User: What shape does this take?
Amino acid sequence: MGKLVRDLIPGIIHASGRTPETTIVTGYEYIEALKEKLLEEAHEVLDAPSEKVIEEIADVQEVLSALISALEINLQELEQVKHSKRLERGGFTEGIILH
Assistant: This one.
């Protein structure tokens, strides 16, 4: 299996004179492809030089948005869960490293 790419990538490849080989995945396969893509993009955030981090974070956010939509997660509920976890365990704003 290949990797999930942005929707316009096959057209860009085709416009360059090449013929992309593609498959459309749905359901469980789509969810799994999004999860794999999320890991790939997270690793790119780790590897990015500081001037490119914003682009990689944008990619992570794009994949998260697609995953939220595919899983039909209610954004209000997501915010409530995030808020509850922050109240119970805190956020990640203080830079605390546990040894």
